[in-house]
Each structure stands twice: as C-alpha cells, then as structure tokens.
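ok so for the tutorial part 2 we go from a plain amino acid sequence to predicted structure tokens. step 1 is just haveing the sequence, like this:
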Amino acid sequence: MKPSLLLAAPHRIPFLTGSLAFGGLLLWWLAQLAALHSGLSGIPATDMPPTLLHGPSMIYLGLAPFIFGFLLTVFPRWIGLPDLALREFVPVSVPLLIGTVSVLVALATGSDRLLSTGYGLVALGWTFALPVLLRVLWGGSKAGKPACWHAWSALAGLSFGLLGLLSTIVFLGCGSPEYLVYANRIGIGGFLLPIFLTIAHRMVPFFAGNVVEGYVRWRPDWLILALWTLLLARLTGELLDVGLLAIVANGGLAAVTGVMVWRWWPRSSAPGLLNALIWGFAWGPVGFALTALDAATLVLGRGPDHALLIGFAGSLLVAMVTRVTQGHSGRPLAMPMAAWLAFAAVQAAVAARLWAAIELEWGTALLLSVGVLVLGMMPWLLRNIGIYLSPRKDGKAG
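step 2 — the prediction. this is what the tokens look like for a chain of 398 residues:
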C-alpha cells in the first residue's frame, strides 16, 4: 500500500479512522462488560470508569469520523464546486486519525494522559473542519449558487458536535458529571440525529429516484426546519429536565419521521442498498416514540437512546458507508454479503439492547448485544479497511 493512496480522496483517512475506532471500541466495550458482568479479570482500565467513557467514545470517535469522511466528500458536490484540495482535508483528517488511535491505545492500556491527549487531537481536527466547510458555503454564495440547506444543516450539527466534544474534554479534566450529561445529550440530539436526518433527507430520495422506476422524490426544504425545531425542543427538554417538552418534541419527531418513511418507501422493486437505507431509517420513528414513552413513564431506561443510536444511526451507517465505499472504489452500488451481515447484526443487537433495558440493564443481554455487533460488524469493517488501503478497482483516481 502506497501512503499516497490515503490522500487520494477526502473520505479515505476518515473512513479508515472510523473503521478502526468502531471496531476497536466494540472490542474494548465487550471486554469491559465481560469484566463487569462475567468476572473476567486483568482488563486494563483508566481512572475514569468505562461505563462513563462508553457514550462519548462511541459518539465522537466511533461515529464522527464516518460523518467527516462523508461531508468532506459531498459538501462541495452538493453546492456544485470542485472537490476539496489536499491542503483542505488533510489538516482535518490527520488529527482525527492520530487522536482516535491515541484514545484506542489509552483505553487498551489504561493511560489517562494519553486519553486526554487523544481527545484533544480529535477536537483539533474537528475545529479545523468547520472553517473549511464554511469556506465551501461561502464560495458557493460568491459563485451565485443557490443556498444548500443540507450543507448548512450539517454544519450546524458539526458545530453542536464540537460543543459536545469540548464538554467531554472538560469532563475528563474535572470529572464534573454535568459535563458528561452535556456531552452525551448534545452529542446525540444536537450532533448525530440532526446530521443523520439531514443526510438521509438528501440521499434517500435522490438515490431512490435513480434506481426505482416511477419514483417520486419528496424532500421539501421546510422539512429540515421542522426537524431542527423539534430536535432543539427535544434537547432543551432533556437538558433543562422539562418532561412535557421532551414528550411533545419526541412525539412530533416520531410523527414527522414516520411520514418520511411512508413517503420514501418504494412502491415497486428496489435494490438492496436502498432497502437497507429505508429500513434503517424506519428505526427513527420507533426510537423517537420510545423516547416519548420513556419521558412519560421512565420505564425504558437507556433503551430509547440505543434504539436511535444502534437501530437508527447504526443501520444508516452501514448503508451509507457501504454506498460511498462501493461507489468511490469503482465497485457496484450494491450491498455485499459483509454489509448484509453487519446490517443484520445491528438489528439483532438493538433488539438485545432493548431487552437489556427492559430488564434493568441485564448483563447477559448487554453482552449478547455487543457480542452480536462484534461478530457481525468485524467482517464488514475489515473489508472496508482493505478497500481504503487499496487503489480503486476501476483504475480511476480517487
């Protein structure tokens, strides 16, 4: 593998980073759960309890690099500008990679100092990304391009994400629990959910219109504003502990995303990759409905969060990353067997995680959930890593 291959396209280093992080964090979390619930000994741990590190690590290290790889690729294309230059995406991608690997090493060895350093490097790359993407938007405006609300929405989500990441770093430094709450709630409600909803709003109707005969694309711009309004109300209700606001906002999100599933569902034969996108998106209304129910009854614990993080975000991650990986490596836009295995594992894992939540965080179900993810996701992640380290199959640049 030539090192220059990793610099051949903006998505290569971040997708490689995400694959390493997601796989590494799954293995680390499985080991920690085994130590906690099965009496397995000798597992290194930092001074910060693993149960407190699990949430922010998966949000800002496991999922975020894939988001950066996607957005660094599509931002200029959404607006109709040339792809980002090497000098623009490398200062973002390299700190993300070094920081993420540092955190993985820290978790594996129990090094608190390396843990904080790694998170700091990730924040540095994240900070570099915002002005790079803002300059793309500014360039589109100067060139007379129409406003791209998907890009503005994604940039807003990344800005919230940086705020949540900085809250994580403060928490690591001082241990104040309120900063962990900010990190997790902002990371989920201000970063991950808005960006996955935005990307789906852009990708699903576009892709379906190209592959399903007679498909009518439906993605009105007002829908982005409606989603953001409800997401911000949801986040406010969570951070300020206003139960009624959280119930109403999550109920509204369940209704809106339910309509999106219904409008997007193909009425005729569709390829597997599109079906995976829509089936994954269908976890959205389910997760929001469960969150509203829990806000009203407090009986589901962490289940609703994981319906959205594993079911919704995890399913869409497999489908979206597969689409980009296949298309940008000169391969057919299809779900290979490894991707289907990963997608099926996500569905089994979220079912086990909901079961664990209903049974008051039952250890056996927790281990089953993570174990299924490890077995199902690893072949897909390893296959993708091999692709990112190899030339395009069609011989083209990128």
